[in-house]
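Tutorial handout. Part one gives the primary structure; part two gives the three-dimensional structure as tokens.
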Amino acid sequence: SDVCSSDLHMNRILELDPVGRTARVQPGVVLDDLRRAAEAHGLTFGPDPATHAWCTLGGMIGNNSCGSHALFAGKTVDNVERLTLVTYDGESLEVGAWTPGAQAAATTGEGRLAGVLRDLQAIADEHGDLIRARFPQIPRRVSGYNLDELLPERGFNVARALVGTESTCGVVTEAVVRLIPSPQHRRLVVLGYPDIFIAADAVPSLLRHRLLALEGFDGTLVDHMRARPLNVEHLELLPPGRGWLLAELGADDPASADALTDAFIADLPAGVEWRRYADAERQGRVWLIRESGLGATALLPDGTHNREGWEDAAVAPADLGRYLRALTELWAEFGYGGAWYGHFGQGCVH
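Part two.
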């Protein structure tokens, strides 16, 4: 299923296997092009940053992208099976995961790949206990190298160890990525809270439900949208509040999607404002509010440029409310302010 015939831009889907649920892609493939091709088979590539209409698979592999639906689909690292890359000394290598027997055989040779595998095995052997003890067990750990993927219990997965390395170890020329079933009927419940901190406090209880996504944003972001103005025609779809959560649920048939949504709403505490949207048009409008975050906060209401933001911080979702309060206090101490938005179900904030 070719998206583009241009080899110059390396933007072709080389193979899409709906039975095996994989796709072999070049790094220049735009995410939404892969998602459209996969949806023809009821499948999707799970991670989806707000830049899904422009970002490429190579970029997503480079920085281990996540996005709204990484809550149920995992990060990019969780969805990469194999990589073909060129090292900086010009060697082309294909890497993935190795069983112990295959790993032992692969490291005994004299070629470049054998040498690389021996060096990576040495890292795992020397630092394995420290990696196990010190790598934080949070959903949104994307910083640094994925050395934990080299551990034997992770299958010595060299491909996934290279996700997030931002081309510091080699240049990816092809990738085999995992596709997952795409729930065909989706419901969106928009929750309104007095402020973003109370909204963040609610995240752990909402995660008891099988959510596809759980996003958050605050009243400051909405204020910036009104001041520009940017996508303000969609704000009428929000319930009252100064902090909002977008909870998406879904299933392959409408009755099941409705049942999941009914149970979710029935479990909400008294006093929480909510709006429920079943049609794709209004859901899309609400998602545009969340995706306006970066653009809306780039300029201050007076037209001057904002400072660089606090980007991609992550904590355990149970700590999110406490984290936001503490960081806001730190802002105030030094005369700063800003808008909060992010993948709250993953403990991620921008």
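Part three, for discussion. Residues 1-5 have pLDDT under 50 and may be disordered. The longest helix spans residues 112-134.
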